[in-house]
Design a protein that fits this description.
Mannitol-specific EII, Chain A, 10 helices, alpha/beta, 16% strand, three-stranded antiparallel β-sheet
Length: 249
């Protein structure tokens, strides 16, 4: 729930930070927190907002670090390191979304999400997506956006999933580079531990592989699905090859 409070240890674990790193962010006021007497606490909803903006706005080196930490933590609750095969299915892909505006794009992708059978409250999901976009656009340079609720709310979903849509028309969605967006990923996680990890994984796959041009060009959704799965596999294999050098620095 967005108004649940976490202590220092809980917040550090949720964000995949050390306690020392989190205390530094508090001292420099670089993270939202509240004080309860002499005790520091964190609102889970505020942490979600902060963490998602941190992931979407991360420089390449910082994103690598965020992704590495979230991947290590995920080994405690995920059977496989690859995430996309379990969250994204070909039936959750639409390559002809008719949306013409930002508002209609959110409406249409929620309708796509409903076809999974995992959305418990479509109206609440759409409202939360709109709130998140009003806070700060989830569009990134390159023509894609990583849509997600403003607050991670488990009760919206029966299970975790990712949906993907490509619009027929370009939409000005608030990308930092000022260019339009046509590729939309919707990340919906029932498990709060998975939410930030899924965002970090998608960002890494899209920015660290050559899959984005294929997402624009492929006309067959099964081929596009296979391209995404292959891109994640390549990113994970590349991370494993470079792990000794990273860990020795």
């Amino acid at each position: 729930m967005p108004y649940r409070t976490l202590d220092l240890a809980e917040a550090a674990s949720y964000l995949h930070l050390t306690r020392v790193e989190l205390e530094h962010l508090v001292r420099t006021s670089d993270i939202p927190f509240v004080t309860r007497g002499s005790r520091i606490a964190f609102l889970r909803g505020a942490l979600d907002e902060w963490a998602s903006r941190r992931i979407l706005g991360a420089a390449p080196k910082s994103l690598d670090d965020i992704h590495r930490r979230s991947t290590q933590a995920s080994q405690e609750y995920l059977e496989a390191e690859a995430l996309l095969p379990s969250l994204l299915k070909p039936g959750q892909i639409d390559l002809q979304l008719p949306s013409k505006t930002k508002k209609s794009a959110l409406r249409d992708i929620v309708a796509l999400a409903e076809t999974t059978g995992a959305v418990l409250d479509p109206a609440a999901l759409r409202a939360s997506l709109e709130e998140r976009e009003e806070l700060c656009s989830t569009a990134l340079p390159g023509g894609f956006a990583l849509l997600h609720s403003r607050h991670h709310q488990e009760y919206l979903f029966e299970s975790s999933f990712i949906a993907f849509a490509r619009t027929l028309q370009e939409i000005h969605f608030g990308s930092p580079d000022g260019l339009p967006t046509r590729l939309f990923f919707l990340v919906c996680c029932h498990d709060e531990r998975l939410h930030l990890h899924a965002l970090a994984r998608l960002c890494t796959v899209l920015l660290k592989s050559d899959v984005v041009p294929l997402l624009f060009s492929l006309s067959d959704r099964d081929e596009l699905y296979d391209a995404l799965i292959a891109a994640e596999k390549a990113v994970l294999e590349g991370r494993k090859r470079t792990r000794p050098a990273i860990e020795s620095t």
